[in-house]
TrEMBL record:
Stored InterPro entries: PEBP, PEBP-like_sf, PEBP_euk
Pfam families: PBP
Signal peptide: 1-22
Protein name in the entry: Uncharacterized protein
Gene source species: Suillus luteus UH-Slu-Lm8-n1
Superkingdom: Eukaryota
Keyword hit for Amino-acid biosynthesis: no
Keywords annotated in UniProt: Signal
Length: 269
């Protein structure tokens, strides 16, 4: 390839680079707004959490299926083994911690609360992250994973998976808080987070499981309309794409492949 053509291609690459990063940033911002809206629309805020301001996107994948989209209805049989989890931060400063705490709770059906708290299905202290994968081996299994078992006719139960950034490398068992693999599984999430002083919530997702036909009418939930989120600015132009994928967003590698592949091919000539 002649030098002038090579210089031109390098110039195009320099121009494309900020466009790629801008698209990624807009996509991430919209993705976070979408999961926030899902938590609010499903009543997880305020039923389970007083507020939810994530700084990263958490995705769960159960065996036999793809990525679980927020609020997706899953079968009980599919969710009996722990999911694989990945996390994508809004920026690299989000993942400066070395240890995290992973929690999964049954927040019951919309509009219903139990004075005994939620059902704790999974609590792990000292979780680590490697190449965006959430790793639980070598961690402290406060509550071993137990699959959802909602009673028949009790409606669609909301199962929230939450990731907290630990303030300290270890999390001492909170005194007077019977949580360690307890038989009933009941716990108050807010009380546990406060008593253990684990740190801020940085990401979360949720799915639903229902057995049989509900014998009552659960409280209505609000659907998430992505076109109303970030209605102004460059993010609005990609709202349709995100909606098409039901809240999923394209990875950075896809952007780079689409935009840069023709230039890289010419460089190889």
């Amino acid at each position: 390839m002649i030098p002038s053509a090579r210089r031109m291609i390098f110039s195009l690459l320099l121009i494309a680079s900020p466009l790629v990063h801008a698209a990624q940033s807009d996509n991430m911002t919209l993705g976070i707004e979408i999961i926030r809206a899902h938590f609010q629309g499903a009543g997880l805020v305020p039923d389970l959490l007083a507020n939810f301001t994530p700084t990263a996107l958490l995705t769960a994948t159960y065996t036999g299926g793809g990525i679980v989209t927020p609020g997706q209805l899953l079968s009980k049989s599919r969710t009996q083994t722990a999911p694989n989890l990945t996390i994508t931060p809004a920026n690299m400063t989000t993942l400066l911690n070395k240890e995290y705490t992973l929690v999964m709770v049954d927040a019951w059906t919309p509009g219903y609360t139990d004075p005994r708290g939620q059902i704790c299905h999974w609590i792990v202290n000292g979780v680590t992250i490697q190449d965006h994968t959430v790793l639980t081996h070598g961690s402290v299994q406060v509550e071993h994973y137990r699959g959802p078992t909602p009673p028949s006719g009790s409606g669609p139960h909301r199962y929230a998976i939450l990731l907290y950034a630990q303030q300290f490398p270890t999390v001492p068992p909170p005194q007077g808080f019977p949580i360690q693999n307890n038989v009933t599984g009941f716990c108050h999430l807010t009380d546990y987070v406060k008593a253990s002083n684990i740190g801020p919530l940085i990401a979360g997702t949720y799915f639903t499981v229902e057995e049989g036909v509900a014998t009552f009418t659960p409280s209505p939930t609000s659907p998430v309309v992505t076109s109303t989120l970030l209605a102004s600015g460059p993010s609005a132009s990609i709202a349709g794409t995100v909606a098409q994928h039901n809240g999923a967003f394209s990875s950075s590698s896809n952007y780079l492949t689409i935009i840069l592949a023709p230039f890289l091919w010419l460089l190889a000539l």
